[in-house]
Amino acid sequence: MLESREWQTVSQVGSEPKAKLNLLQFTPDREYQVRVVALNSKGMSPPSEAAVTFRTPAPQKPGREVNFFGFNE
């Protein structure tokens, strides 16, 4: 389930038929939706409905956490 409905511009492409996004710019293990806005000489179109929904991969390695038990000075 999406946590926020705030839309942000992440990438802009020219007239290429396919666009690529770098997943490293997204937070890991989170769901995102993509919508499209067209820009031409007449101006900017309204945003499309969500065209694609995807989830970024979870981190491959667990974070390092150090715990100290029974530590005396």
From TrEMBL:
Where would one find coiled-coil regions in this protein? none
Q: Which CDD domains match?
A: FN3
Q: What positions does the domain Fibronectin type-III occupy?
A: 1-59
Instruction: Note the InterPro entries from the entry.
Output: FN3_dom, FN3_sf, Ig-like_fold
- The protein's name is Fibronectin type-III domain-containing protein
* Annotated organism of origin: Dreissena polymorpha (Zebra mussel)
